[in-house]
Design a protein that fits this description.
Blueprint lengths: L1 H29 L2 H8 L1 E13 L2 E12 L2 H21 L3 E17 L2 E18 H14 L3 E8 L2 H30 L5 E11 L4 E3 L3 H5 L14 E13 L1
Antiparallel strand pairs: 1-8, 2-4, 2-5, 3-4, 5-7, 6-8
Helix pairs in contact: 3-4
Length: about 250
């Protein structure tokens, strides 16, 4: 009986080995060097796009800083001036009006290493946004209402304009990447087959454009002075697109 079963076992083992050999052969054929080389034969290019957008709004930050002998006195004076400034800004219907900071700090004098309390300094800051053409006049009015500092002014574009500029910058970046790829492949004598992957590295929103030199002008503004000159500019929206192209 043992001898009769051996041919069966031998036949079964032979078929199993043959099947294993077939699978191994198929996998080897699938990962041949030529096929791997075809998969790896791709070109990666990155295109850049820049789109300019005109700024139309001024983002302004005003400060109200006062001193008093006591903390209560300094804070009360700062609060009154701040309310007057805020009331003015509300009447002018500015956008995005908000309190951006409140502080109260002691003031000391030093003599022969001794520290003496002189009083307190209270500071409130408010921010708002207005059309460029109104910024100079409103800042001067705010100074007359009680503001003592112009902490900063920058220019921004409308949200819709920025969104449109981002799309245009992405289109320009894509066109730039394709043009680069076409030039390289043409020089090498290859033809583009397909785009394997696309990576959008972003369409960066523009940073606000700052402006300096207005603080002293506004602090000495009076009723007969011309409004502080405020001139906006342009912001650049930048985009980057990376293409991997098989050839």
């Amino acid at each position: 009986m043992q001898h009769l079963l051996n041919p069966v076992r031998t036949s079964f083992r032979s078929r199993a080995l043959a099947t294993f050999a077939l699978v191994t052969l198929s996998l080897t054929t699938f990962t041949t060097p030529a096929f791997a080389q075809e998969l790896l034969r791709s070109l990666t290019v990155t295109g850049q796009g820049i789109e300019s957008v005109t700024t139309t709004k001024a983002q302004v930050t005003l400060g109200i800083e006062v001193q008093g002998k006591t903390a209560k006195e300094a804070q009360a004076d700062a609060a009154k001036r701040s309310n007057d400034v805020v009331d003015l800004l509300k009447k002018r219907k500015v956008e995005a009006l908000e309190t951006t900071g409140i502080s109260l700090n002691p003031r000391y004098s030093y003599n022969d290493g001794e520290q003496t309390l002189q009083g307190f300094t209270a500071t409130n800051t408010v921010g708002f946004r207005v059309p460029n053409a109104q910024a100079g006049r409103i800042m001067d009015e705010a100074v007359r209402a009680g503001a003592t500092r112009i902490n900063g002014i920058s220019f921004v574009a409308e949200d819709d304009a920025i969104a449109q500029a981002q799309k245009q910058a992405l289109r320009a970046a894509t066109t730039d990447a394709q043009a680069q790829a076409d030039a390289v492949l043409d020089a090498l004598g290859f033809d583009a087959q397909e785009i394997v992957s696309v990576q959008i590295n972003g369409a960066t929103p523009p940073r606000p454009v700052p402006i300096a030199g207005l603080a002293q002008r506004s602090l000495v503004a009076d009723a007969t002075a011309s409004p502080s000159p405020v001139i906006g500019g342009e912001q650049d929206v930048r985009a980057s697109v990376t293409l991997q192209i098989r050839y």
